[in-house]
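2 proteins. here.
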Amino acid sequence: KNFAAEPHLQKENKELKTMHRACLNNKANAALKMDQWQNALRASEDALRIKQDDEKALFRKAQALEGLGRTEEALEVLDEVAQIAEDMDEDFKEAVLSDVRERQEAIKETEHRAAKDYQHLFKKMGDKKVFGGGRFLPDGTSPPPALTPAQEAKMKLQKEKQEYLEAKAQHERIQRLKDGKPAFEPREPLLPTANTPPLSQSRALQRSRTVTAAQAEQLLGELLEAYSSESFQRKVHTHAKDAVFEYVPFLKRLKPTAFEVQESVLTKWGFDPSEEGLHEMFLCLHDHTMRNRRLKELAEESTKMLLGGEDGMWGMESD
């Protein structure tokens, strides 16, 4: 749906359009990850109706077209992205052009392989008399249709990529076990909290103190109160808008702002007012939130407010 404020609220309407476009881009990105090419194409085209020169929407449209096998159209769209990139700042321009070149080369390589596979397939079909007397099976039915060259090429690439990734993962697991490490390396959270602390530091960090369950509840309550303040929420929502509701850029803006309110809590509770002290506090809290459901829910509520609540970036971690 398209939501709009009153016509005279021009600034609000502009922000709504920006948010709507960001949501459509996120939708297209999610569809691409699930190989839902048609949905990705539809979402990216909807975003382009709002802003015709949105390079992110154009790039995702090209990816969707590539997935649909419409490679010529995909290359044309990539050319549009390259033209738009020429007017960008040098660093951002190079990053965009690098992505464009990568996709262009991949498409051309796929087309080249498809052409060779098509010639080979056509020859085999001729040898087997698919177009002559051998075109029917003994029971009188036709053999199943052969895959198109593009499908053949795609399946081959997918198989090669899958085999490579499996071999790489197996090698890394074996190497980690040889080094006396767990087979799988824990994934660090983008934003450490009481429920998702920095796991890599859980063993290496020398703790200066511990907290009881009652103290953990009080500490979480103070964090929740600090995050819920009107001034903090206003800053968080501003960061979300500035980052066009993209999660990772939003976190980069949020962390220093969050530390402004976290610092006083750290000092009060005897933790070092630093990033290391913050991680130590979350590890101490995690000792209790991982066992106590009520404290876990309280920690979840504080994280929710840290991200701006339901009107902010809460629930958008997977975008």
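next one coming up
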Amino acid sequence: MVSSDDIQVHFDSSSFTERTSVGHKHQLQLVIQNEGLRNVYGVVSKSVLSDLKYFDVISCLPPDPAHDLLEGLVPELIKKVVVTFIQEGYFTLDFFNNALKVFPYGKCDKKNKPTCSNTDTLASFKIKQTASQTWCLMRLLPLMLASTIPEGNEYWELYLTLMDICEITFAPSVPCEMVAYLEYLVHGFLVTLKELYPEDRLKPKSHYLLHYPNSLLKYGPLVHCWTIRFESKHVNRQKNRRNLCKTLPKRHQLLMCYYGASENYFDDKMSSSTGGTIIKNEQFCDKIQRLLEVQFPGIQEVYSLSSVELHSSTYTKECCIVLEERENRLHEFMPSHQHSQIKIVCCCDL
């Protein structure tokens, strides 16, 4: 439990007392007897999920990094640093909007391309993006703006620290050794954030970062706990809002039945592709011929495609695909048994 004032001065998880199942049940009973204690304990009423036999509201609800970071802290910090850089004269708001517009987004990022700000004044400037757009913007912002910012700028370093936190948080696999490093990053980030923006009060979503290291140990990689996969179902949302609890599940199951009944839905073969041509090996340069001989010994010809869809993923020119990992030192924070060298194939013009 923590108050709004406490999170402004304490940036270590050990400074707070976490809720327990026993304590929560006791507080719930007190709130039922006296509703005036709701603001004291932060408990409004009993959750209907508590009636489930094997569910506990304290231990069975992992954090959602999509809402905490991509729809909370990340756009808020991007707004702050961009406004600071504009005020410092590093670039203008028009330059920022133009950078978003003309940046050469890759095939995988085009569908999540961030939108430009529709305001001309800093007073009303906001970063209004979806979670996927924010993730795209955060990853590519250094490529857009880094050349305009002096090296060692403390505001830029703060932003890069948040990027490191997000990289660990959204990683599909996280070594245990990285948990301590994440705790170190979060502590330093919150301390610096408060020092650089002392007039701004830290919001609860900033405080939640302190619990991410323990959550990683308890639930595993948090990217597997986020709500993005569930919210992707909104793509097939219906305009009919009558009896949603019946309409949405029914139409969703009909869609799943349609997919399941298709002949190639569970097929490992190619799903679809654009037209292509057959190219003999001798038509390639020596470098490509040697590469083909190593990867596909004895092959005499190649079928060249502009794009191909396989397992619901579309591969086009200028894409990079990880083929395999080999033993080697990749990252100083990875344990020795996880050092690997990643082999990548690039889709390009032949």
